[in-house]
Amino acid sequence: MAKILVIDDERSIRNSMKDILSFEGHEVLLAENGMEGLASVKTDKPELVFCDIKMPKVEGIEVLKRIKEFTTETPVIMISGHGTIDTAIDAIKNGAYDFIEKPLDLNRILITIKNATDKTQLIQETRTLKTKVSKKYEMIGNSEALERIKVMIDKVAVSDARVLITGPNGCGKELVAHQIHEKSNRRDRAFIEVNCAAIPSELIESELFGHEKGSFTSAIKQKKGKFELAHGGTIFLDEIGDMSLEAQAKVLRALQENKISRVGGDNDISVDVRVIAATNKNLKEEIAKGKFREDLYHRLSVIIIEVPALKERPEDIGELTNYFLKEICEDMGIACKTIAPEALETLKSYEWTGNIRELRNVVERLIILGSQNISKEEVELYR
User: Fold this and answer.
1) Which string of DSSP letters, residue by residue, matches 130-141?
2) pLDDT tier at 203 (50, 70, 90 boundaries)?
3) pLDDT class for 128, splitting at 50, 70, 90?
4) Model pTM?
5) Half-sphere exposure (CA, 13 Å, Cβ side) for 374?
6) Does 132 have pLDDT greater than 70?
7) Closest among 77, 87, 66 to 5, alpha carbons compared
8) Over 60: is that where the pLDDT of 314 sits?
């Protein structure tokens, strides 16, 4: 049940609201004027506020404005016995969740409380989910190489410059792309990820740019492509070195003109998209072989971020291992396991050709097969 504050200069209204809401199981706070109400909002932090419009000292609309300056998340429901349409509109414009006329209707009050608290809960759950997603793409480690990348991310994120991320498989290129997006002005818009290596060459154009109904045999309806879905946000073209030359030409046009056209379509569609690309290939060598367009390379490589292999930053292995131990044990719902210092040193001595992805797999294997305090012998056995 919710903690609810009622601000009203009429004692009978305050007491009636308290009786009704307390009966429903809510915790009720009372304030007889705007100043008391504002003080209660700051100290008691109610989850919901009922506020009368006509009050001495401070008018209800002014109380509403000050509450919204203090917290934008607490729903404020305005009540009045002298309400007009203009008054209601003014209240809503200033951030009120709803407007209820006196005499107060019990059912209307209870329904409004339920809707308002459901909305607040949804906002809180969304924030929690975003935090979890953000932590999922957190960059773990304090090596000099990683710190340089973090500094570069902070500088690059505030612009719309295109970024090319290079590095071997499993080294964390996707994490860099997510961090750039999360720290950019586009963070609240879409982040669309496309694995260019996983999409067949004959379908890549349709995936990226969409298609019109009937443009090919299986095109039974119109479909928006990834560039359109990313409008206003960021598109991450992972493994772009595996993209066909035909698709590369269309991506180049999208970057040059900020326009795309669907497969089978005649109309140009304007798109506002930040492009981040990643590859594990040496694109200059691919250009020399005729497998990658040089003009596209220069369009993409405004900023180049090179992510080092894990073996080049062994000082991060300890922190990564402990992070994975905690994360995986939490996901499994078991007590967090530990790792002996000599076992950790053994992990640091390996080459890690699969980089961070391989390290995580090994840690998960050790959690499943190893003891509560993972030993050096277990690392050597299950590595």
Assistant:
1) HHHHHHHT----
2) confident
3) low
4) 0.68
5) 27
6) no
7) 77
8) yes
Element holding 76 (H helix, E strand):
strand 76-80
Residue 133 has a pLDDT of 52
Q: Where are the alpha helices (DSSP H) in the chain?
A: 11-23, 34-44, 60-70, 85-93, 106-136, 144-157, 173-182, 204-209, 226-229, 245-257, 283-288, 294-300, 317-332, 341-348, 355-369, 376-382
- Degrees (nearest 5) of the Cα angle 352, 357, 361? 90
Residues β-bridged to residue 80: 101
Write down all domains in the chain, each with its CATH number in brackets.
3-132 (3.40.50.2300), 137-308 (3.40.50.300), 311-382 (1.10.8.60)
Pair 169, 355: CB distance under 8 Å: yes
Judge whether residue 174 has pLDDT over 80: yes
Residue with tokens 């209240």: 91
Question: Which tens digits make up the pLDDT trace of 277-302?
Answer: 999 999 999 999 999 999 999 999 99
Q: Enumerate the β-bridge partners of residue 338.
A: 373
Residue 207 contacts by C-beta under 8 Å, 6 or more apart in sequence?
194, 199, 225, 226
Measured distance CA(327)–CA(37) in Å, rounded:
43
Q: Are 310 and 317 in contact (CB under 8 A)?
A: yes
Rounded-to-integer distance, Cα 49 and Cα 67, Å: 9
Question: Given this model, what pLDDT does residue 65 score?
Answer: 94
Q: For residue 268, what are the contacts with CB-CB under 8 A and spacing of at least 6?
A: 257, 259, 260, 261
Give 336-380 pLDDT, tens digit per residue.
Answer: 999 999 999 999 999 999 999 999 999 999 999 999 999 999 999
Other Cβ atoms closer than 10 A to 181: 23
Torsion of CA 29, 30, 33, 34, to 10 degrees: 20
C-alpha to C-alpha distances, 48 to 26, 51, 78, 226, nearest whole angstrom: 10, 10, 11, 40
